[in-house]
Each structure stands twice: as C-alpha cells, then as structure tokens.
Write a structure and sequence with these properties.
By secondary structure, the protein is of the alpha/beta class. Helices cover about 50% and strands about 10% of the residues.
Length: about 375
C-alpha cells in the first residue's frame, strides 16, 4: 500500500499534508501544458523498454507531481496493451471505474509507495525533510512481486527534500533496480540531489507554463478572480499554476501592492508605512504564517526581477500600479555590487528567521533598511 506514517485521523493528516482547496496530485486527473512530457512517458512504456527510474524536474507547481501520479495510475490501472500496430492508448487517462483506480486515488493500492515528508508526532506538524525513517521499507517494497498487475510504482515527492541519509537509502534501491518496478522522483531543485541519484535516472525536464495557460487555469480553479488579477497573479507566479493558486487563495496580490508601495519610497523610506507593513508579520497563527511564506516568495522574486533588469537592461512589466519605472530608478542609484551585497544579506536574514525563529517584524524592517543602505 502507499506507505507513510499516519495519524489517528487520516483526513486531518491530509489537511496538514495538502492544505489547499484544490485537488492534490494523487486525485487530480487534469494535466495541461505538458503534452510532450506525457507522450515521452507513454512511448517509453509502449516500447517495452521502460526505464526503472525517472527524475521529473522543473519549477514548483507546474504539474510534475500530477504527471507522476497520472503515470502511476496508468501503470497500475490503465490500458497497457497494444502499441505495436497503433492500437495502444493515446494518453495516460484512466477510466474512473478501472480496477484499482479508487485504491490509487486513496493512496492505498498494494503496488504503490508514496514517499514524502511525514508528520512529527511531537509537534503535530509536517517534518521539514524526508528522513531515512521515511524511506525504510522502500527497498523491500520495490523487490516484491506485484499484487494486482504488472508493475510496482513508488513516487518520491519531492526528492530534493530528502536528507543525506534518506538520499543514500534511495540510492541503494537505484543501484539494484528490480524488474517491473518504477521509481518516479519529483524534484524542484535537482541540483540538491546526489549526482549518483541523478545519473541513474532518466531525466524528464518540464518547463514553466505559458502566461495564457496559467491565466486559463486560474479562471477554472479560482473563478472569483478578476481578469486583471489573473494577469497580475500569472506574472508573479512565473509559469506556476500551483504558485498562482496559492497566491490567490492567500490574498497575496494585496500583500505585493503594499510591498511595492513601501519600496517606492526608497531611498527615503516612509518609516511609518514600513512599520505598518512589517507589523502584520509580528502576528501569530496560520494566517500570519501564510503571509510570511508569501512575502518570502514575493520579495525573493522581486529581487531576482531587479537583477534580471540589470543583466538584460529591460524592466519587467509592472504587476501593480506604482511599479512602473521603479526598477530603473533603483538600479540607477547604486552599483550592481552594492545591490548584490544587499540581496545576500537579506537572504541570510530570511533564512535565519526561519531556522532560529528570529523576530519576523525585525527581519522585514532590517531587509528594507539593507536596500536603503545600498543606495547611500
């Protein structure tokens, strides 16, 4: 069955694991924008030479895990016959009433192993990494005879969240691949993986989605958003529908507007406005945590956008009112070295705030003051 430590209430555990309103990858049957990647996997299966391990890479939230689950569903419950004379399936869709399909959607299929971060019973929160304890049983599972069909499938989501010991345990499985067992590794940052893991996998590089695709999906999954909001969210999400939906559900567009309003007062920071902005991160609770995660992403993305402007000499399209011309004005006021130093200092501040529970309000204040110092 799909393994992983559980709590007494599976429904509550799933809410911790997947806190979003939209369907998780294991129940999402829709994949848009990755036709070629899907065709590559289908062709490999139909050829009779299916690689034992796939490394699916690309930005977070573009559909990598959804594709992994589509392929697992296809291998475990799909129509796999034919192919030599053009009579095989044309895609990875599996009928809702296919034998074993409901077990896969519930992650209880005997030939399925789902390796992911698990619950820390001491804190009641999801662990920050996949530990070697989570990997125990994967090797035995992969070497068992399939219980219901031809294949056994394990999904690692995400592989770049494995700690060193967990990664070495997975490497041992890759070094002695059993027949009719497929390992699907989802990775947002494959550079964090052991080179020996990367070298033993067939890599499937998936690209960020186009603006039109993200806006279309936002309309489908977040129909209450207005057209201009979808455009802004798609710009901020940089080709990730998952990120766009997270930003939409968290009301992060308003947060971004407030951030830009403060940045627009540089180099003479409006300290009253800055303190009001920073005060929202001094709160406690899940809503404050959501705001904090959004700020991490938005502030980092804005800094990268500023660096791109410096590199290519072309300002990014403004997302909100007040942003037009801001990048050019800021870049004209300081050297690239000073901006780079400020960005590095800010990255360390945010990392320290998360690792040692540094005061978030002071982190925000300090970050904006670092930008101000770069301009003087």
């Amino acid at each position: 069955m799909a393994r992983g430590k559980t709590s007494a209430d599976p429904a509550e555990l799933e809410k911790l694991e997947w806190p979003h309103a939209w369907a998780p990858p294991w129940r999402n049957t829709r994949l848009v924008g990755h036709d070629q990647a899907e065709k590559t996997m289908l062709t490999a299966q139909q050829s009779g030479r299916l690689h034992h391990a796939w490394l699916m890479t690309g930005p977070r939230g573009i559909g990598k895990a959804t594709l992994a689950w589509r392929f697992a569903r296809f291998l475990l419950a799909g129509q796999q016959g034919g192919g030599l004379f053009g009579d095989g399936p044309e895609g990875l869709d599996v009928p809702a009433d296919a034998p074993g399909r409901s077990l896969i959607d519930a992650r209880s299929h005997p030939d399925l192993f789902h390796l992911r971060r698990t619950l820390n019973p001491d804190t009641g929160r999801m662990r920050s990494e996949i530990s070697v304890d989570d990997v125990r049983g994967l090797g035995d599972f992969m070497h068992m005879t399939p219980a219901m069909g031809k294949y056994r499938v394990a999904i690692v989501d995400s592989a770049d969240e494995m700690n060193r010991n967990a990664a070495n345990a997975v490497l041992k499985v890759l070094e002695e691949p059993p027949p009719n067992a497929v390992l699907l590794l989802v990775a947002h940052a494959p550079g964090r993986l052991l080179p020996t893991i990367r070298s033993r996998c067939r890599r499937l590089a998936m690209q960020a989605l186009g603006m039109d695709t993200v806006m279309q999906l936002l309309g489908d999954y977040a129909p209450d958003t207005k057209p201009d909001e979808r455009t802004a969210l798609a710009n901020l999400a940089q080709g990730s529908i998952g990120r766009a939906l997270e930003l939409a559900s968290a009301g992060s567009l308003g947060l971004y507007r407030e951030m830009i309003d403060v940045l627009a007062t540089l180099p003479d920071l409006d300290m009253a406005r800055l303190h009001t902005f920073a005060e929202r991160f001094a709160r406690r609770g899940e809503e404050a945590n959501v705001d904090w995660r959004s700020l991490n992403y938005l502030f980092d993305g804005w800094q990268k956008s500023l660096a791109r402007h410096w590199a290519v000499g072309d300002e990014s399209a403004p997302v909100v009112a007040g942003e037009k011309g801001l990048q050019g004005r800021l870049l004209a006021s300081a050297s690239l070295d000073r901006w780079t130093e400020a960005f590095d200092d800010i990255a360390r501040l945010f990392a320290k705030a998360d690792s040692v529970n540094l005061d978030r309000k002071q982190t925000v204040l300090g970050s904006f003051l670092k930008l101000q110092s770069a301009m003087r």
